[in-house]
Each structure stands twice: as structure tokens, then as C-alpha cells.
Design a protein that fits this description.
Layout lengths: L7 E4 L6 H7 L4 H7 L5 E7 L2 E7 L5 E7 L3 E5 L5 E5 L1 E3 L2 E5 L3 E8 L2 E8 L14
Antiparallel strand pairs: 1-2, 2-3, 3-4, 5-6, 7-8, 8-9, 9-10
Amino acid sequence: QGNMAFAGKYEFECDENYDDFVKKIGLSSDKIEMGRNCKIVTEVVQNGNDFTWTQHFPGGRSTSNSFTIDKEADMETMGGKKFKATVKMEDGKIVAEFPNYRHTAEICGGKLVEVSSQISRLVYKKTNKDLK
């Protein structure tokens, strides 16, 4: 599947599991409150594989990340933490590995749908017991 058209402005509509997610990634309580049900507008400028992804918050604050698909870019989290990431395109979805979570974005029915899932870590210890 080719690149989907992401360009446009999208107004926040709803969230699922916001509180659990932002606590798990370590956002401070003031940032959690600021983000709760606020009318964030996400603006996406796309030129082929080049993107500028900006979130405008009430009160005039905004954060912006510019990246090119499959090239490492300097990025910033909602909490202001800077990191490097290579953003990919997988099955029409934009995928970025943030420090504590995986973020995907896709266009569904004319809407921008973003999903952030915490990256889990499983650790197994060796056992001497026979497993059947």
C-alpha cells in the first residue's frame, strides 16, 4: 500500500485509556491535567515522505516534529524529552518508536487515529523443571 494522504488539520474528538497511558510513560500530573480532554489540534504537513507533525494546545503552546520516512530524525515527546527515531510506514500507518511507547497514526474514515501503546518487557528465568 502506498503513502496515505495525512495532510490536514484534525481536531481532538475522543480518547481511550488516556490516564493509564500517560501515567505509565511518566508524564507529570500538571501535564496530564493539561492534556485531559483539551481540544488539541493536530496539523500535518506532508510532502511525499517528508512530514511536519504539529500539535497545537489551548493557550498557544505547540510541539512539532519534522521527519522523513525511513530516515533518523530528532524528535520530542509530549513531556519535552528529546530523542532520535526513525519513523516508518507500515501498511499505510506511520509508526514511531518513542522512548517508552510505540506510536502509530493512520487515516480512518477521514479521521486521524493515533494509537500509543506502552512497550512491554518480558523477562523469563531459567527453570530446571520439565515442562510438559
